[in-house]
Amino acid sequence: MTNVVITGTGLYTPEHAIDNASLVAAFNAWVDQENARNADAIERGERKPLTYSSSEFIEKASGIKSRYVLNADGILDPTRMRPKLPQRANDEPSLQCGMALSAAREALDNAQVEAGDIELVIVACSNLERAYPAVAVELQQALGAGGYGFDMNVACSSATFAIETAANAIAAGSVKRALVVNPEICSAHLNFTDRDSHFIFGDACTAIVLEHAACATASEAYEILGTRLATVYSNAIRNNAGFLNRVTDSDPLAMDKLFVQEGRRVFREVCPMVASLIAQHLASLELQGSDLKRLWLHQANRHMNDLIARKVLGYDPSEVQAPIILDRYANTSSAGSIIAFHLHRESFEAGDLGVICSFGAGYSAGSVVVRRR
Ligand code: CO8
């Protein structure tokens, strides 16, 4: 028991959606264009022709049907194959701050908390749009929050790691109220010309308000019974983009400066890690899988979630017991499990128990056990 409660969540969903059929049509048009450009080398056997992607494969392998993105036109343009986002001037709100403001305001409204009462702002996500000043400090000012803010990155596990960080600050008495925000612009770091991964990600932003239980007034509150985090180093999900690219004379536009993964290996290695993390966490709280009413899992792959949920709960869960949002949102990195928690708290009553769990690059995994107050 931490004496910390989650009292509000918020979600920003971009207005553009791309379904599998449109994404695959753009990819296949790009393949035709590349194969025509390299026709001579292909003819001489020096180069293999690129092969088409397929909507059937994407849905069957991942469960993803569609994704939301900040910009669809650039991604669907076979001569571009990446989003086109306007550069913002230094005196304009940054893109991530804009997404964060929208999600944060909804979370604050739900929590019935004034922005001025927030004393800690954590922006936690996979990709930050600049090195400094921290997006969290910009958001703090834009909201009119007090205290302090900082950015952190634990890839897909950023939200649960930030929840633990915020809960610890509240439990230690450093602050009474904290705001965690996850502005994920995954489309900017996705290689839309890579057949193996072009369909995986979408954009979204989530926000969570955490308070000391004694301060919380919202009608709907979730006590954090405990948090548990784990990391194991792996290169199976990697992105080499970084500030040293300029000075190492490597190509800053090379494909390794985007998301790269060995999907099958990730699947094989991460599922047991996550299932055992949740089981150990529950055992430490003298709980077991059968005590849980809901699992709000990270949303990367439908089959991964089915496997993990079965291991944790001991039976095949329904969509109510382990909600899936990746069919519409795809993998939104750290926002995924929080979107599931935000959209699927229906029929959750006082005393009901659930787990918010994220996992991803690092490897990293985080478990947050909550009980409706
Ligand atoms: N269309 C048609 N066929 C395809 C396609 C395609 N698009 N892609 C691959 N195939 C073919 C392959 O060529 C292969 O053919 P063959 O059998 O003849 O060799 C066959 O389909 C099977 O390929 P795979 O083995 O690659 O397919 P899988 O069944 O493993 O499915 C997945 C691929 C869906 C990627 C799956 O492996 C998966 O989801 N794995 C887990 C991934 C995961 O959870 N990753 C977490 C990463 S997220 C994270 O940590 C956050 C990072 C930060 C975010 C940054 C934002 C960009």
Write up what this structure looks like:
The structure is a single chain. The chain has a domain at about 220-370: Peroxisomal Thiolase, Chain A, domain 1, CATH 3.40.47.10. Helix content is about 35%, strand content about 20%. It has eleven helices and 13 strands. The protein has helices spanning about 20-35, 40-45, 55-60, 75, 95-110, 135-145, 160-170, 265-285, 300-315, 325-330, 335-345, and strands at about 5-10, 15-20, 65-70, 120-125, 150, 175-185, 205-210, 220-230, 235-240, 260, 295, 355-360, 365-370. The strands form three sheets. A nine-stranded mixed β-sheet has the order 5-4-6-7-1-8-13-12-11, sandwiched between helices. Strand 12 and strand 13 form a beta hairpin. It is globular, with a radius of gyration of 21 Å. The chain binds octanoyl-coenzyme A (CO8). The site of octanoyl-coenzyme A (CO8) has 30 residues, from helix 3 and helix 8. It comes from Vreelandella gomseomensis. Keywords: Acyltransferase, Transferase.
CATH homologous superfamily title of the domain at 222-372? Thiolase/Chalcone synthase
**What is the level-2 CATH architecture name of the domain at 222-372?**
3-Layer(aba) Sandwich
**Average pLDDT for all residues:** 97
Poorly predicted segments = none
> Any idea of the CATH class of the domain at 222-372?
Alpha Beta
Main sheet characteristics:
9 strands, mixed
Major sheet: arrangement of strands? 5-4-6-7-1-8-13-12-11
- The total of helices stands at 11
CATH topology of the domain at 222-372: Peroxisomal Thiolase, Chain A, domain 1
Order of helices and strands: EEHHHEHHEHEHEEEEEHEHHHEE
What structural category do the secondary elements indicate? alpha+beta
Helix content: 25-40%
Bound molecules: octanoyl-coenzyme A
Measure the end-to-end span. Answer: 12 Å
The rough form would be described as: globular
Keywords: Acyltransferase, Transferase
Domain Beta-ketoacyl-[acyl-carrier-protein] synthase III C-terminal: 283-371
Pfam families: ACP_syn_III, ACP_syn_III_C
Domain Beta-ketoacyl-[acyl-carrier-protein] synthase III N-terminal: 150-227
